[in-house]
Design goal:
Blueprint lengths: L4 H18 L8 H13 L35 H48 L9 H4 L6 H14 L1
Length: 160
């Protein structure tokens, strides 16, 4: 069977078109650019997800070593005993916490009392040197009767 050369060319062109569809061809680029681009595209190859890998660094792959059956461990106390012990410990911790809080409060109260006494002492020392306060009536000037005040208001309105 003789093959037609035109058919061979068509088959070759189809294979070339399929090849070009699968690969990127850098026509007219320098070899350095081609190597950079190839390195870039090769670095973008996606890695399979961790779940699909057979061995993971995160997961311990080996089973734990079995314990010697001849060694017996002490029996654990029953749950009600544990609860009672834990509640007693918790109550004792709470009592201690409240005692500490009361002690701290007492220390603060002593400090505040001491500061107040010092403040009063300083006030007593500085009292003779403070200026005397004026009475309220002297601060506002002479008393004016309401009738005189109304006359003054009328006079000001007439000036406007």
């Amino acid at each position: 069977m003789a093959t037609d050369p035109v058919d061979d060319i068509n088959v070759g062109l189809q294979e070339l078109a399929e090849l070009e569809a699968q690969y990127t061809i850098f026509v007219g680029s320098s070899p350095e650019d081609v190597s950079y681009a190839t390195t870039f595209w090769n670095s973008l190859a996606l890695q399979p997800p961790i779940e699909s890998r057979l061995v993971s660094a995160d997961i311990g792959q080996r089973l734990k070593v079995a314990k010697d059956p001849s060694i017996k461990t002490a029996p654990r106390p029953s749950a009600p005993q544990n609860d009672a012990i834990f509640s007693e410990q918790r109550a004792e911790e709470d009592r201690q916490k409240y005692k500490d809080m009361a002690k701290r409060r007492d220390q603060i109260m002593v400090l505040l009392k001491k500061q107040r006494e010092e403040r009063v002492k300083r006030e007593m020392i500085s009292r003779p040197f403070k200026p005397k306060q004026c009475h309220q009536s002297n601060r506002h000037g002479p008393d004016v009767s309401p009738q005189e005040l109304d006359e003054d208001i009328q006079h000001v309105r007439s000036l406007q």
